[in-house]
Amino acid sequence: MPLPSDEKSIVHVVDDDPSMREALQGLFLSIGLETRTYATAQDFLDTPVPDSPGCLIIDIRLPDMNGLDFQAQLSRTGVHLPVVMMTGYGDIPMSVRAMKRGAVDFLPKPFKDQDMLDAVFAAIERGRQQRAVDGDVSKVRERFETLSAREKQVMLLVTEGKMNKQVAGDLGISEITAKIHRGAAMRKMGARTLADLVRLADVINPRRRP
Amino acid sequence: MPLPSDEKSIVHVVDDDPSMREALQGLFLSIGLETRTYATAQDFLDTPVPDSPGCLIIDIRLPDMNGLDFQAQLSRTGVHLPVVMMTGYGDIPMSVRAMKRGAVDFLPKPFKDQDMLDAVFAAIERGRQQRAVDGDVSKVRERFETLSAREKQVMLLVTEGKMNKQVAGDLGISEITAKIHRGAAMRKMGARTLADLVRLADVINPRRRP
DNA sequence: ATCCAACTCATACTTTGATATGAGCATGCC
DNA sequence: GGCATGCTCATATCAAAGTATGAGTTGGAT
């Protein structure tokens, strides 16, 4: 497992205009941000994206695909990079649609370098936080997967607030066995106390409303 | 305490153009939505807003205040109605700024009636859900406030995962006393089990990260 | 002065939790 | 066959939780 901490952020630029690609690449490189450019949406989708932090700069108008559709497709494809949209001919409804779909920013061309940099910084920061959360959730899930089927059942019932006796009754096993599974679940989940286990369970099984 | 369930939603329209106010009022009334209109931001701020669900339609350009500043001021004033922005002369950066600040939608004038209705429905729905969450949180907080100072301390320590013995040590009291406060906290919070209490505590004291 | 709520503690008892030790049985893998 | 894993259960022990009863102190409000 690679160290996720001090990874370099990568800025991905998707624009069919070569001069814009070069300009942005120069801008980002000037502040030490690794940059990769793509001429089309398909170009980006065909290129394996390393699982590293960063963001995605998309021109709304692409040769092969609408920028908004592209944005929508990314989530489905499993790419969760924060998106900064830019366009030379967009209108307000288009920008609103992009923002509704979660874009970090929407810049009309031409834009000031500083505006783009601000947008990229905001995007990278948003991604960084999202990655931190996702990472925590993943770790908990991984641990949960190391539990046996019974241990999972017992853990979920216990964190519902049921006593060992009730858990045993629900599962049709003896209280002693339930205790053993409970102990194993605590150990495997790294939960020192029941309160910890409850919070871990809520990461896996989020409660809708209190 | 009033019943919060089936309250009527109220649409608040802030626009200095009388014909627009009338048109929108007519549109909303035609589908049975109670509507109130205001000519200026100050007019709205001076009028007591009942704590009922609904939304706020704001023209960006108001005589006394910029719509964006108005939007920003609302949160500070304690008004948390979802906002739909509209404008006759806005540009993309303005719409993006509004969306970043949490606007539900941003409609350029002229707009189709149906677009406005869609926006209002979305806004009301968002507000409804937010109100539900806020209501739940408030209820928990209210209950928590019925606890005595000691009971609060004990509850927080217990939900950190500490045993009664540790709680007693931390607070410099006997374990028996800690148990009494613990029991009182459980009863007053309506927590049947420790798992319940942990989740209630997390509503009051949200954990940053697992 | 009186009253009340909060806080404190003790004793006693019951229930539950946590853990260790030992063991039987089924499944699947090498 | 041998072996590991998971699931099951019993007995036993100790720690902790939960509850009930009774009682003393303090500080603030009436």
TrEMBL record, chains A, B:
Record-annotated membrane-spanning stretches: none
Pfam families: GerE (PF00196), Response_reg (PF00072)
A Gene Ontology BP annotation from the UniProt entry: phosphorelay signal transduction system
Keywords in alphabetical order: DNA-binding, Phosphoprotein, Transcription, Transcription regulation, Two-component regulatory system
Domain Response regulatory: 10-124
PROSITE patterns reported for this sequence: HTH_LUXR_2, RESPONSE_REGULATORY
Domain HTH luxR-type: 140-205
Example GO molecular function: DNA binding
CDD domains, per the entry: LuxR_C_like, REC_FixJ
Gene3D superfamilies: 3.40.50.2300, Winged helix-like DNA-binding domain superfamily/Winged helix DNA-binding domain
Sites of 4-aspartylphosphate modification: D59
Coiled coil: none
Designated name of the protein: DNA-binding response regulator
Species this protein is from: Mesorhizobium wenxiniae
